[in-house]
């Protein structure tokens, strides 16, 4: 039997099957080790699977079964632009024709594992392909799962003709020519920034904005609106330029270039977070301020919603991340140009009554000696943190009950969309009625109630749970986001004449701290679902039952803690007794101005403003 196998291997070793590593460059396992736990480009994955499929066709046509296909047995050749399968008599064997179908399925199943590894960057069972920060071909995942089922009845030719393999190998880059081969010899991270954990990129904003926030508030309070806009736009634009340039930098420094650009862009957030209140206070009359603040604040969730819609359209594979970075670079540089253009036109049109520069420490003292501001500081900052944490942990909370990533996405979209609508309605009503306190109490109590009921509703299954979650997401978004601009305007009313940058910036900064607090609670006080729990039969957290990394968790303890903290917010808002100091001051000034005009018209001396003494 061994002689037959050796003879057959010699006969077919001239193409995609090799019997020694003498003329090979590196094994696929070595490439993937250098590449990191990231998905390979689709064209490269397709080229690998196509070539190894051809190797299997050669083996199977000679009734030889490999039985040990893995990334350790696949090699890129030195002198040939192809991948080959290392085969030896130690594991290959010749079989009878009546067992050929079953044995072919065994080889194809092993090749399916290789396909999954190339597509996701992880071994099968260690990751949920639906819960990764990268865009992974759904078509390729379905093919890999079908191949690994061990009931694969198609021939290997079916794999070669499959759309994922055939379409990607038709691309010009699918030809592994000499230049491509040389690049692949020194393969590092070609398509994603670095080989380290990509979650660091999203954490950079929180790590930078919290400690740098106080400095940003101080700079904003002494520099005015236009300079604050420039200080916000500059690091954002230069950070985007560095991220775009990272794709042209050396492989060894690419990850650090992206981190540098992300960190620089994060420095813009402390200037952006107080700008809506500052702009509305400086450039808009009292009858339009709440609506102006709403428009400024809602630009953030609207931007998130827009990015979540367009990013998947631009990034169809990991190679397209460069396109996304370049697009963002053009956008950020364009915004910087607009900011420079408008900031250089004419004199500042800030309200003259508010043009006097506020001292930073005095504003701090004014805020934290005002009991109404302290209450707003806690409940509004906590509300921001609760909303952000629910948005961030949505899928993890819902998947143990069988809800998919698509359902979690729909809930997030409904929350943001309804929040934008609710904020505009609340802004118009509050501007017209000046009912800051009543609006804040109503919106906060309803939002806290909806948020608390929402997290517990994630434990329900079926159509009742689905309808309940969608309805609660609408109510939570509509009222939760609407409290944001109303609360910031109320804070400015309570702390007048404190600097708007300080009073609003501190609340937003505290909201970031509360976001970290709630996410930490959800992480620390969640426990793996018991093996006998019925939810293991319906959960949607894992792609396979062997996926321990995405094992479904029970959040009951975390939900109890969050419900108690949220209830405290609902109770505290009842104790609000705000004074509308800014509105009262503006009414007095308006009255004095009208009386001065009337007295001058009648020939009397003008009335002096007592505030000037």
What does this 3D model show about the protein?
With 613 residues, the chain is mainly alpha-helical. The radius of gyration is 31 Å and the shape is elongated. The protein has helices spanning 2-12, 28-35, 42-61, 100-120, 138-148, 156-161, 163-169, 178-185, 199-245, 251-266, 269-272, 275-283, 289-314, 321-343, 360-368, 371-392, 394-398, 405-433, 436-457, 462-495, 500-524, 556-572, 581-602; strands at 17-18, 24-27, 64-65, 74-77, 83-86, 93-94, 527-528, 553-554. Strand 4 and strand 5 (83-86) form a beta hairpin. Among the domains are: 197-287 and 300-345, Growth Hormone, Chain: A (Up-down Bundle); 353-605, MFS general substrate transporter like domains (Growth Hormone, Chain: A, Up-down Bundle), CATH 1.20.1250. A four-stranded mixed beta sheet has the order 1-5-4-2. Strands 3-6 form a two-stranded antiparallel sheet. It has a two-stranded antiparallel sheet with strand order 7-8. It has 23 helices and eight strands. Keywords: Membrane, Transmembrane, Transmembrane helix. This is Protein kinase domain-containing protein. The chain crosses the membrane at residues 200-221, 255-275, 321-342, 362-387, 407-430, 439-457, 469-492, 504-525, 555-576.
